Amino acid sequence: MASHQNGSVQCPHCKAENISAVRQLIAAHDLDVKAAFVQGKLNLVRCSHCKAVFSPDVATLYYDLEQGHAFVYVPAGPTAPGERPATRVRDLTDALRRSLAPEQWRSNLARPQRFSSPGDLAQAILKADGITPELLQVQAARAELLAALLQAPSEEELRTLARAHDAELDGPFFELLTAQMHAAHMAGDAQRAQTLLTLRTYLGRHSSRGQEVIAAIDARLGLNGIQSREELLTHLRQARDGAERAALVAQGSMLLDARFFQLLDAAAEQAARDGDAAAAAVLQQLRIELPALKAASEAQVRAALERAAALVTQVVSAPHPDRVLAENRAGLDEAFFVVLGATIERARRQGAQEPLRALELIGQLARTIGAEGDG
Questions:
Q1: What angle is formed at CA 346 by the lines to CA 343 and CA 348, rounded to 5 degrees?
Q2: Which residues have C-beta within 8 Å of that of residue 275, sequence separation ≥ 6?
Q3: Mean of the per-residue pLDDT values of the chain
Q4: Which of 5, 6, 289, 340 has the fewest C-beta atoms lying within 10 Å of its C-beta?
């Protein structure tokens, strides 16, 4: 018995028999096949009689060599004379053993956990990967809360919402907010990036854990936690050299807008009125240098975004996404996860559940491969 097998499958609509190749062994690392099964799209057949498209009800064995477990589904329908469901399970495990190198085989793969339907098996796969229905609901609720906060008609309403949902303004929430903020900035949507930054700063000040969580996130991303234009200007005035100013511009580029330059010009005029020639000279030099530094920083961001977007597209469309991820481990950086996170969030907002699950699986695998590279 091979992982692919030609056989007769019955159309559930017109009952016509169709000859088709079906896959019965699913490897956890074969992400494309795994995602297709989870989405109910594996082994799709177009009926030669009524032209309906259906997924045949066939025995299926899923295995994960890394986690060392196997799941199996066997249809409850009629079998060959004298054949029992246990026989089909044994046939599948024997086929799996033959497909693996001797050192890959584990005895517990011969005792797969049984499930009564393909849907139950798919849910078990997601649960084993940490993607439970409850988790998806929590993530959706988190996204809905962020949308509600963004749509608050007044500061008073925003404060009321923040207080009412203080317990939910936790690490994962601020990670989502920060990821969307960086995704908007990298996509060139300066207005949305600034709106999200303003919201993040406000929530950081008006939630019980906000400032601590934001500081931890920024430290992990290598940012210095600049939260306002005034703070950025102070740091720039104190910078020792061009390299330090360039780093500050990269970290606070979302704040370098028209309002920032108005603040800079006002500070320069005040220094001149005060007779502080040294301060005025520093500010005038910043007025000359910053536009070029900002342009250079944005060019680097766009390049990083384009590389990450190309890699995400390559992974999503590849027959073996796990191989593409492994071959591009160095590209699994912040930009990659920002782009992937924005793609996942777009699928969630659109209600595209099947692509959402596939993208979540890709994210899970990318984090695993990235962690292996760090180790």
A1: 110
A2: none
A3: 83
A4: 6
Q: Which residue has the tokens 């220094």?
A: 271
Per-residue pLDDT tens digits for 68-107: 899 999 987 654 444 466 888 999 999 999 999 889 898 8
Q: Is 15 left (phi over 0), alpha (psi -120 to 50) or beta?
A: left
Listed in sequence order, the residues at least 6 apart from 310 whose beta carbon sits closer than 8 Å to its beta carbon are none
Spatial CA neighbour of 31 closest among 361, 329, 372, 354: 361
Backbone angles phi, psi at 115, to 5 degrees: -130, 150
Q: Are 309 and 339 in contact (CB under 8 A)?
A: yes
Token reading at 87 = 């026989």
Mean pLDDT of 323-337: 84
117 phi/psi in degrees, rounded to 5: -155, 155
CA distance 331 to 8: 44
Q: Determine which helix (DSSP H) or strand (DSSP E) holds 151, and give its type and residue range.
A: none
The structure tokens listed for 202 are: 């406000």
Q: Buried b vs exposed e over 290-309: b needs ≥16 C-beta within 10 Å? A: beebbeebbeebeebbebbb
CA distance 289 to 116: 67
Residue 53 contacts residue 10 (beta carbons within 8 Å):
no
pTM: 0.53
The residue to which tokens 């590849």 are assigned:
318
